[in-house]
Amino acid sequence: MQQNGKLRFAQWLLVVVLSWHVFDVSVGHPVKGDVRLDSVDMESCVPHARALLWNMTEALQHDNLFGGINCTEQTAEMNSGTQTESACEPNPRQDASCRGQRNTKFDKTECLKNIELDTQYYRSALLAYSDRSLGSRLVKTIDDFTEHCFPAREDSSVIEVSPATGNTFEGRLKLCKAMKGLRVRAITINRVMSYIAAGDYEM
Ligand SMILES: *[C@@H]1O[C@H](CO)[C@@H](O)[C@H](O)[C@H]1NC(C)=O
Ligand SMILES: *[C@@H]1O[C@H](CO)[C@@H](O)[C@H](O)[C@H]1NC(C)=O
Questions:
Q1: Which residues line ligand 1 at a C-beta cut-off of 6 Å?
Q2: Ligand at shortest distance from the CA of 17
Q3: Per-residue confidence (pLDDT) for residue 196, from 0 to 100
Q4: 25 pLDDT more than 50
Q5: Does the predicted model carry a pTM greater than 0.85?
Q6: How far is the CA of 70 from the centre of ligand 1 (A)?
Q7: Residue 127 confidence (pLDDT) above 70
Q8: Which residues lie closer than 8 Å to 116 by C-beta, 6 or more apart?
Q9: 36-45 burial, b if ≥16 CB within 10 A, otherwise e?
Q10: Packed helices 42-60 and 3-18: angle between N→C axes, nearest 10 degrees
Q11: Residue 149 contacts residue 186 (beta carbons within 8 Å)
Q12: Smallest Cα–Cα separation from 161: which of 187, 183, 138?
């Protein structure tokens, strides 16, 4: 992984992150309209997908967030309600010479739909299990991403969540697993958004 190269950036990022003030997060607005995934401007989306990955990576390096839980040893919690990995598999026709390849076309809309659902899923998980200030910061990163990558969704606060149910062991464990899950998903998202931005699959 290119983690080493990003470490320096992550350190710089830490300064940025620490200098944030607490954002006011508003939750509980209703769903608005349909999402027109085809109109996504990938050029403006990609940097925000990258920021999501970097910011999540950085946040996970703060052991003290999890109060005695070694988050490194925990498994990531993936959203069981989506099929993002298979929906976002790159166009196998490019490897048509390999035997046993499926001959399906990369379905951008389906892939982006899964990504969007994942994003909402982790957004509410982070809000539910982190304290107010951390939750606001992480949610801001997710909302920045949503705003630029899914601009048709005017209001990203779709899922009603009651923030921070208290600083329990169980809550910190869930926070750790959800943050790891989002980081894993953010890696997929970065691959996919770059892939879509390059436009190769449209041939
Ligand atoms: C957490 O676990 C990892 C992997 O087992 C280990 O390398 C690391 O030293 C542990 N960190 C702490 C703070 O115990
Ligand atoms: C995330 O990282 C980017 C740098 O890529 C930074 O500009 C931004 O403030 C960070 N936080 C959020 C909420 O996006």
A1: 63, 70, 72-73
A2: 2
A3: 87
A4: no
A5: no
A6: 6
A7: yes
A8: 35, 37, 146, 150, 153
A9: ebeebebeeb
A10: 80
A11: no
A12: 138
Please give the number of the atom of ligand 1 that sits closest to the Cα of 63: 13
Ligand 2 atom nearest to CA at 16: 9
Q: Is the dihedral of CA 174, 77, 46, 29 positive or negative?
A: negative
Q: What is the DSSP letter of 76?
A: P
Query: What residue owns the CA closest to ligand 2's atom 3?
Result: 51
Burial track 101-139 (b if 16+ CB lie within 10 A, e otherwise): eeeeebebeebbbbbbebbbbbbbbbbbbbeeebbbbbb
With a 6 A CB cut-off, is 10 part of the ligand 2 pocket? Answer: no
3-state secondary structure 98-126: CCCCCCCCCCHHHHHHHHHHHHHHHHHHH
pLDDT at 22 over 70: no
pLDDT in the model for residue 155: 55
Burial 144-167 (b: 16+ CB within 10 A, else e): bbbbbbbeebeebbbbebebbeee
What is the CA(144)–ligand 2 centre distance, in A?
8
